[in-house]
Amino acid sequence: MSDRLSLVFAALADPIRRDIVARLSTGDATVGQLAEPHQVSTQAISKHLKVLENAGLVSSARDAQRRPRHLQAEVFDLMTAWIERYRAQAEERFSRLDEVLAELEDRPSAQDRPRAQDRPRAQGAAS
């Protein structure tokens, strides 16, 4: 996987990493703070953070002895643009389907149409 969008979606495929992103959306946090709600080691959280950093979702800074992690929210613009393109296409297809269904509802059904033997015959027609 080399493109950034693939890296981002792959990084977010894991529920712990999504939890980390959710936590970081409320503010910066250290590895220890991010590990608190999970039943995993800080080393495991560090590995998850590495994946998120490689995808560009998270960055780290130095604050004395702490290394708080920060969410890079602009990456969501990339995801939103990609999702929006396909959402718009799907919505357009559903709109066309609605038009076709509305046309079909306006047409008389086969049961409502007079059958050939029920139609009045033209004068002079052979019987």
What characteristics describe this protein?
mainly alpha, rod-shaped, 127 residues, two-stranded antiparallel sheet, single chain
Write the layout of secondary structure elements.
Layout: H1 4-11, H2 15-24, H3 31-35, H4 42-54, E1 58-60, E2 69-71, H5 75-106
Antiparallel strand pairs: 1-2
Description:
The protein is mostly helical. It is 54% helix and 5% strand. It is built from five helices and two strands; from the N terminus they run ααααββα. The protein has helices spanning 4-11, 15-24, 31-35, 42-54, 75-106; strands at 58-60, 69-71. Strands 1-2 form a two-stranded antiparallel ribbon. It is rod-shaped, with a radius of gyration of 30 Å.
Structural class: mainly alpha
Beta-strand content estimate: under 5%
Task: Give me the strand/helix succession.
Answer: HHHHEEH
Principal-axes shape call: rod-shaped
- Let me know the average pLDDT: 89
InterPro entries: ArsR-like_HTH, HTH_ArsR_DNA-bd_dom, WH-like_DNA-bd_sf, WH_DNA-bd_sf
Pfam families: HTH_5
Organism: Jatrophihabitans cynanchi
Protein name: Metalloregulator ArsR/SmtB family transcription factor
Quick structural summary:
By secondary structure, the protein is mostly helical. Helices cover 54% and strands 5% of the residues.
